[in-house]
Amino acid sequence: MPLRFLDDNFWSDGFVFKLDTDGKCLYGFCIANPQQKPHGIFEAPLSLISSFTRISEEKIAVLLAEFEKADKIKWLPSLDKIWVKKFIIIQTKNPKYFAGMLACLEKSHMNCNRNISLITTIMGCG
Asked: 45 with 60: CB under 8 angstroms?
């Protein structure tokens, strides 16, 4: 299982600092969970997230909607997918991570040469 990075500054980030305990736990889970892929997208039904975080499915749905409104994630509830928008920036302290992200995009049938806007969006540059 790949290692995920959670910077010490996570706790003092303005967005995270204002969250309640469940919000902090859920946002941390979105960044560093076992289903997370190098491009920042993971698939997990609310029941699975609830089993990891011990937060009710109803509250998870409310919090994910708040995260999306704050432009931190893109939540696709019909597909059980969540994209952490600036995930790669959080993970770039590991020099091998960018290569892993590109490989993951290739496996996802996304041609990196033709999807520069997608890559810049994933990296938080777009």
From this structure: no
Which structural domain range is residue 93 located in?
A: 8-122
- Number of structural domains in the chain: 1
Q: Which amino acid is at 52?
A: F
Residues making up the chain, counted from first to last? 126
For the purposes of burial, counting CB atoms within 10 Å of the CB of 113, is it exposed (0-12), middle (13-18) or buried (19 or more)? Answer: exposed
Bridge partners, residue 81, by sequence: 43, 76
- Sign (positive or negative) of CA dihedral 89, 72, 6, 99: negative
Average pLDDT, whole number, for the chain? 79
Q: Which tops the pLDDT comparison, 31 or 69?
A: 69
